[in-house]
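ok here's HAD-like domain-containing protein:
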Amino acid sequence: MSSHQDLTTFRALSFDCYGTLIDWESGLAADLSPLIALLPPTHAWRANPLLAVQRFNDHSEHLWLTQPKLAYDANLRESFRLLAQEQGVELKGDDLDSVGDGPGRWPAFADTVDGLRRLGRYYKLIILSNVNEANIARAVAGPLAGARFDAVYTAEAIGSYKPSHDNFRYLFAGVKREFGVDQEKGELLHVARSLTADHVPAKELGLRSVWIARGGDKPEGYGTGGDYEKLKAEGKLGFEWMFQTIGEFADEVERQFAEKERQQAE
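and the structure:
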C-alpha cells in the first residue's frame, strides 16, 4: 500500500466527512461532557472520554441498522439518551438537544481546509456522509468554509446509513449523472478515516480508496474507526494508499501532478 501509486488518473474524490474532515471524536467528547461530569471520579470515562465516545457510537450504529430513516440529529439525541440511561444519569433537555446540532459546529482538523483547497485543483470533490442535511449545510458554511464541494450526498437524502451499499450506489449514480465520472472505469477515489463504515464496503463494491488513518493504524488510536489489525487479518480492507492526514494526501497529489507535468514537458 505505497503512497507512490498513481493518483493522477482519478477525476473525482468522495470523502467521508466526520472523522476524516471534521474532528468528530473530539467534538462529540466535548458534547458528552455533561454526562461524564456526573459520573463517579473513579469511572473510566472520567480519565478517558474516548471510551464514552466509543460506547455512544455503539448505540448510534445500532440505530443506523434498526432505524435507517432516522435523521442523524435525532440519532445523536437518542444515542445520548440511551448512553445516559445505561449509566443511570438523568440529562437536561438542553444537553440532548445540543448533541444533535454538534455536526454543524464541531471543528475541522487543522489540515482539512487547506488540503481540500489543493485537492480541488485536480478533482471534483464530493461528500458522502452519515449526516442530516441541516447539519452538513452548517458544517460546509462553518468549519469547512473555504473548501469547495461539488456535491454533498447525505444519509438523510439516501434513506440509509453507511456501510449500506445503497449509500455508495447513490454516490456512483450521482457522480456519473452530474459529472460524467464513472466508478466502474476507476475514475472515482474514496477518501475516508472509518474502516467499518467506508473501507469495508468500498472493497466489497470494488471502489478504490485512500485511508486517512489519523492514528488509527495503532491500537491506541483505533477510536470509532474499527480494529485495523482484525479487519486486515480478515481480508476486509482493500485501500491502496494510507496517509495520516488530508494535508499529507494533498502533498503527495501535488507531487505526482508536478512530476507528470515535468515529464510531459520533456
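+1. The first strand starts at residue 12 and ends at 15.
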